[in-house]
């Protein structure tokens, strides 16, 4: 990071911090906060979480030493972090209704449109440009869920919200369906008050609602049980113990956010990039399962979904189809994939066909009862 060439006094810096917040809102961020780089408390939390193995196969969580919890070790010279928040739920998108329709696919609502990383990084770059226009060259780096960055911890310290029992960052006026981004900077800006009050109270709706019991303690998610991890991060076979609980969630899971009472304060996002593409907010499982690899690559171009690749996409959909009510169409769709050249896909297809067979036999048994 290069250092600021012009000397700014406290008054200049305070005015600059105010301007940064105004510019941030003009650029489409709902909230902007500023914090220092001391993440000691969160560092201890991360150490305990890793020691318990809650990160599963996500080795990148343990890989970077203290770079994640000490911003100055990731980007030398970092003094402050500008933390931003952007709502993402598009207007008129169903959530729980689709979860209750087991022949439809549920895609986590953050992944319905174009990949958010690019959009937020571009906006952060523009924010940095505004700052540079004001004060001259300064050191900065923009991050969006892309490097070892403790984004929720930094956002909490910057005053954007508190850690809910589901481990998400919650804002009392906005819920938790938002993206976070960060601008690491060497500007010694005044910091905001951290969000120290916690508003979960005696509520534990998220813990009760989690389909796989992944919230093992308040604010502690065991990723190895979490559907987001199982459908997105996990490369191999999904443990059978969790397949039924996955239901129709084929990419991520929002349950612990959807049941949260603060989610009713979610404000719709009118960012065009976040609007659902290819009916991903309401598509039938069989329709998505019929996509060829070429279609998958075309339709998920510029989407977060693409990162799991076609094989895991089919794996997840096979689980969803195994959990769907019995129908000839579902069975036929699964049978059509029996020769698919991937052990991973075939194994999940066999599992799904077995579930379909059980349901078919149960229906026949019921129909034969006098
Ligand atoms: S995302 Fe789903 S599986 Fe993961 S903790 Fe939340 S409710 Fe549980
Ligand atoms: S559901 Fe209840 S306990 Fe869970 S994060 Fe929301 S308010 Fe907190």
UniProtKB/TrEMBL annotation:
GO terms for biological process: tRNA queuosine(34) biosynthetic process. Binds 2 [4Fe-4S] clusters per monomer. It catalyses: epoxyqueuosine(34) in tRNA + AH2 = queuosine(34) in tRNA + A + H2O. It is found in: Cytoplasm. Its cofactor is [4Fe-4S] cluster; cob(II)alamin. Cob(II)alamin binds at residues 68, 145, 166, 169, 180, 228, 253-254. InterPro entries: 4Fe4S_Fe-S-bd, 4Fe4S_Fe_S_CS, QueG, QueG_DUF1730. The active site is at residue 145. Keywords: 4Fe-4S, Cobalamin, Cobalt, Cytoplasm, Iron, Iron-sulfur, Metal-binding, Oxidoreductase, Queuosine biosynthesis, tRNA processing. Pathway: tRNA modification; tRNA-queuosine biosynthesis. GO terms for cellular component: cytoplasm. It comes from the Bacteria. Its EC number is 1.17.99.6. Its main location: cytoplasm. Gene3D superfamilies: 3.30.70.20. [4Fe-4S] cluster 1 binds at residues 200, 203, 206, 260. [4Fe-4S] cluster 2 binds at residues 210, 226, 253, 256. One of its GO terms (molecular function) is cobalamin binding. Residues 191-220 form the 4Fe-4S ferredoxin-type domain. HAMAP family: QueG. Monomer. Belongs to the QueG family. Catalyzes the conversion of epoxyqueuosine (oQ) to queuosine (Q), which is a hypermodified base found in the wobble positions of tRNA(Asp), tRNA(Asn), tRNA(His) and tRNA(Tyr). This is Epoxyqueuosine reductase.
